[in-house]
Structure formats: structure tokens, C-alpha cells
Amino acid sequence: MESKQVEPNPYAKNCGSRQVIDRIGDRWSVLIVLTLADGVKRYSELAQRIEGVSQKMLTQTLRGLERDGLVTRTPHATVPPRVDYALTDLGRSLLGLVSGLEAWATSHLGDVEAARARYDAREGRHGSAA
Amino acid sequence: MESKQVEPNPYAKNCGSRQVIDRIGDRWSVLIVLTLADGVKRYSELAQRIEGVSQKMLTQTLRGLERDGLVTRTPHATVPPRVDYALTDLGRSLLGLVSGLEAWATSHLGDVEAARARYDAREGRHGSAA
DNA sequence: CGGTATCCGACTAGATACTG
DNA sequence: CAGTATCTAGTCGGATACCG
């Protein structure tokens, strides 16, 4: 078989690496992975910890992460029911990157907000007072 | 709720750091920053290099990045017109992270695809054929 | 060339109601 | 407790048309 393995290129629209970037970029994925950083969590813990996520989005994102092999889902047949979520090795391999993202967001938030304020102030003077 | 300056916390829905994560997470933002990594580019070069982006999304994302202080926009009053885009220092500070993202996506693409195939195969046996 | 404005369809995400 | 199903509003994003 001579199907050449071209290197993954996120600029190419058909390349799967773009899907991977999409998943990482997902607003809830990042927060979920971050929340699972310090160990296994149950569904309700995630829901509580991640402010503003709806049940639908939480479940949906969790399923996506599970599908991509980043988290494991472990249901317990107890009553009341209980489901545990944890990072896989693959998920953990992403942790450094994701917490780097959080760190960047946290430390450069001020810069970004200042830049926005500057830009928005500029909007007003398009040549005429508005 | 809280006018006190608490430390940025992406879990809190009102915290700006979530907006920052959103911007980074944006599918086109990542690709644009990556494309600008090796220097200034003009609008048409970006459009060409980033496959599948529409003019609307390219301009819109570029404006967002400019507003957030990550890229500069430099129009030249020549004919035909020409606009150059480049990363700011802030934008460059993000480069390591973003290319780390690309590297992760590239190197773990196979794992993710395998996990997906495994998961999807599982779907078929929910107890009923479908 | 490098946009902007508008229209409109497709997908997203939230609220709600119900189930194992 | 941990979901699933459904409905719907809002947003996103592509195509098109036109301007500086």
C-alpha cells in the first residue's frame, strides 16, 4: 500500500487536525478538562463547578470528550445513580496546554481589556462626531 | 455582584478571562495567528493560505484580533490598495501556546481518530440495530 | 485589492418537561 | 442523580452585491 501519509495540516479544510483544534477550542471542553485536572469528578460536581453551563451542553461536551478519548465515563449502578468522569492519558497529555491557556488568559486579561477599550474609543471618531 | 477585583477565574461566567479563552478557542483566530507567525502578511495572502475561510469571517476575525490587541492592521494608501497584518507583542506572547496547540493536534490526531472510531463502533450496539 | 452591508439558511445552545 | 427529548430563539457563517 502506497498511500502516502501527508503531514497533518490545519490550514487544509479537510484535515482532521482542524477538528481536533475545534474540540480544544470549545469553550466548555477547556473548562471541563481543567476541572478534571485534580482528579475524578461526578456529573453534578462538574455542573456545579462550571458556572453557566446548561445540562445539555455539559452532557454534550462530555460525550464529545469521551468520544475523542480525552475523558472516561464511569456509571455506577447505585441508587441514587452516580457517574464519574476522569481524564484519560490522552486527556492528561493535553493538560499542560490547557492550563497554559488558562494562565495566559488570566495574566493577559488586563492587556486585552485595555486594547479593547482603546479600540472601542477609536470607533467614535470616524471623521465625524457620533 | 462584586465590584472588588477578585482574581480572574474562568469558571465564573462573568469573568473576562472566559472571553479571552473564547477568542483563543475561535477556529479562525488560531489559524490566523499561526499564519502570521512568520511575519507580516497582506489580506489576500491570509485569504489564500487559510483554506475555507470566507471573506466575511476573515475580516471579522481579523477585526476581533485587532480589537483584542493581538494583531496590527496597516493600510497603505497605494493603488491598488494593500493592507498588512502582523502580530503585536501580545500576539507573539500567544504564539508558543497556539503552536503548542497545533503540535498537539498534529501529533495526537491519530489517537483521537482511533478513539472516535472505537466510540462510534460502540454506538451500533445499543440493543437495537440502527 | 480590500473591504462593507444585507439577506437568509443552518446550526447552536438554552429552557423545559419527562425518564431510568 | 444523571441524563434524554423537544421546541425555539438567537447566533453564526456563507453568498451576493456593491463601494473606496
TrEMBL record, chains A, B:
Keywords: DNA-binding, Transcription, Transcription regulation
Pfam families in the record: HxlR (PF01638)
MF term (GO), any: DNA binding
Gene3D superfamilies per UniProt: Winged helix-like DNA-binding domain superfamily/Winged helix DNA-binding domain
Domain HTH hxlR-type residue range list: 15-113
Alphabetized InterPro entries for the sequence: HTH_HxlR, WH-like_DNA-bd_sf, WH_DNA-bd_sf
Domain of life (superkingdom): Bacteria
Name of the protein: Transcriptional regulator
UniProt source species: Planosporangium flavigriseum
